[in-house]
């Protein structure tokens, strides 16, 4: 099994409820938007900020795992980066960041009834966005959930 498949399967084992996945999809988008919005305030050179440097570093990590998935995740991050630039308000980003984490906590406490995957492995902070993009686009075939799990709840 390739490393990306093992990471996606491990992450997926803690994210089986569709309601939790919905909380995560919205929450992660808010977290990434918020982080990029706040990092837009730190200029590097010319039009570049720390937010683009973060996207570049994340892209290299994702390329190491899977090239097609890396392109998809980078595209999503690029859209959120543009939205962060357009908003131009780090305060909005800070609020989005906080609300995103609240949604993550709700998803695990209310719907999944387990701890976030990154409590076991910090790499899952990076795997989460890739998992959701993969769920949405079906880039990599993920192992099916055990039959005893109801993924529609």
**Shape from CA axes?**
globular
The major beta sheet can be summarized as: none
In whole angstroms, the N-to-C terminal distance is: 29 Å
Summing up helix and strand content along with how strands pair, one would put the structural category as mainly alpha
Average pLDDT works out at 90
| Relative helix content | 55-70%
Structure overview:
This protein is mostly helical and 153 residues long. It is built from six helices and no strands. The protein is globular. The two termini are 29 Å apart.
What is the strand and helix layout of this fold?
Layout: H1 3-13, H2 18-39, H3 50-65, H4 67-87, H5 90-112, H6 124-137
What can be said about this structure in brief?
Helix content is 70%, strand content 0%. By secondary structure, the chain is mainly alpha-helical.
Could you name the key traits of this structure?
disordered C terminus, 153 residues, single chain, 0% strand, 6 helices, mainly alpha
């Amino acid at each position: 099994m390739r490393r990306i498949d093992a990471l996606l399967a491990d992450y997926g084992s803690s994210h089986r409820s569709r309601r939790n996945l919905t909380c995560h999809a919205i929450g992660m988008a808010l977290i990434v938007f918020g982080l990029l919005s706040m990092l837009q305030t730190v200029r590097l050179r010319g039009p570049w900020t720390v937010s683009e440097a973060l996207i570049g570093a994340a892209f290299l990590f994702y390329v190491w795992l899977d090239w097609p998935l890396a392109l998809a995740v980078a595209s999503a991050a690029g859209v959120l980066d543009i939205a962060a630039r357009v908003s131009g308000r780090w305060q909005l980003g800070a609020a989005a960041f906080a609300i995103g984490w609240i949604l993550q906590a709700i998803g695990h406490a209310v719907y999944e009834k387990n701890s976030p995957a990154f409590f076991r492995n910090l790499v899952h902070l990076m795997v989460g966005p890739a998992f959701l993009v993969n769920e949405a686009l079906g880039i990599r075939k993920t192992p099916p959930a055990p039959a005893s799990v109801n993924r529609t709840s």
